[in-house]
Amino acid sequence: MIRDDDLELLAKAKEAGLLSPDEITDDELVPEDEEFIRLALAERIQHVILFTSFFTLVLTGIPLVFPDAPLLHKLFFFPESFWLRGIIHRVAGVTLMGVGIFQVVYVIMSPHGNRDFHKIIPNFQDAKDALNLFLCNLGLREERPRFGKFNFIEKFEYWALAWGIFIMAMTGLMLWFKEASIALFPIWVLDIVRIVHGFEAILAFLAIIIWHMYNVHLNPEVFPMSKVWITGKISKKEMMEHHPLEYKDILRERREKLEIERVKQLLEEVKQQRPSS
Q1: Do 206 and 238 contact (CB within 8 A), yes or no?
Q2: Which residues, 6 or more positions from 96, have their beta carbon under 8 angstroms from its beta carbon?
Q3: Which ranges carry the Cytochrome b561 bacterial/Ni-hydrogenase domain (predicted)?
Q4: In this prediction, what percent of the chain has a pLDDT beyond 70?
Q5: Rounded to an integer, what distance in angstroms lies between the CA atom of residue 41 and that of residue 44?
């Protein structure tokens, strides 16, 4: 049992600076060579399946949007190619929908996924960060905004992807099961669905190639490719530079944990030194 003199000793230790955060250096909390988990294994597997199915959909869907493109006649040159293209396109579509469903389950069931999901929900600070970064790029501000685990670009990409999968899944299913769609909706609705499906695919492809590929892989800081999607890890330097608020939280949590360990150690020393009654 902890006595009053135990607490008095701890109070004196705190006054003496033994439990002060200033006594614990950042290097003691985070070694220079430490790497942080950015993407868990389940998330990396989702990512691989996602981009594989996505680019398969793009490749097999282009003939429907641009049927007269010369390159397509070279890719789909044999008689059964159009039928095979349709099969592959549908398989990739079902795979993409499966990834979307798995992500929902992962967010609900996995503590890691649930925690990250709450961090990726947009808020008013993201709008301020976007404006401040824009002003910084124009040279009107000197200090760049500081981000947590996800910046506003990553949040935008995540929710744009979620919306895109939903739209492509709904319109794709309507085009796949035309008879059921025509039975439920006027024929002109199916025409609109076909247009939406095609142009949403083009928009998603351009967003991935221009926006995502540059920010993640072609950026001069990581060119020619970021390895996070393979290893799932980032260095201490990358954490401090790109996610300083998350790094600050990690320092705070580790410092508090170390403080608790010191308190426990002091209490044990007090108990050992106390004469038995």
Answers
A1: no
A2: 50, 53, 54, 57, 165, 168, 169
A3: 41-216
A4: 84
A5: 5
Residue with tokens 């607490």: 7
**Joined tokens for residue 40:** 């868990």
For residues 203 and 225, the answer to whether their CB atoms sit within 8 Å is no
Q: How far is CA 5 from CA 9, 12, 64, 270, in A?
A: 6, 10, 81, 9
Could you tell me which of 125, 123, 120, 177 has the C-alpha nearest to residue 154? 120
Residue 225, classed as helix, strand or coil, is coil
Q: In whole angstroms, what is the distance from residue 52 CA to residue 95 CA?
A: 9
Please give the sequence-ordered ranges of beta strands (E in DSSP) within 148-252, or none if there are none.
233-235
C-alpha count within 13 angstroms, C-beta hemisphere, residue 167: 19
Beta strands at 233-235 and 35-37: parallel, antiparallel or unpaired: antiparallel
Q: Summarize pLDDT for 224-264 with one digit per residue, the tens.
A: 888 899 999 999 999 999 999 999 999 988 888 877 777 77
pLDDT 10s digits, 49-104:
999 999 999 988 887 777 777 776 667 766 777 788 889 999 999 999 999 999 99
Distance CA 153, CA 158 (A): 9
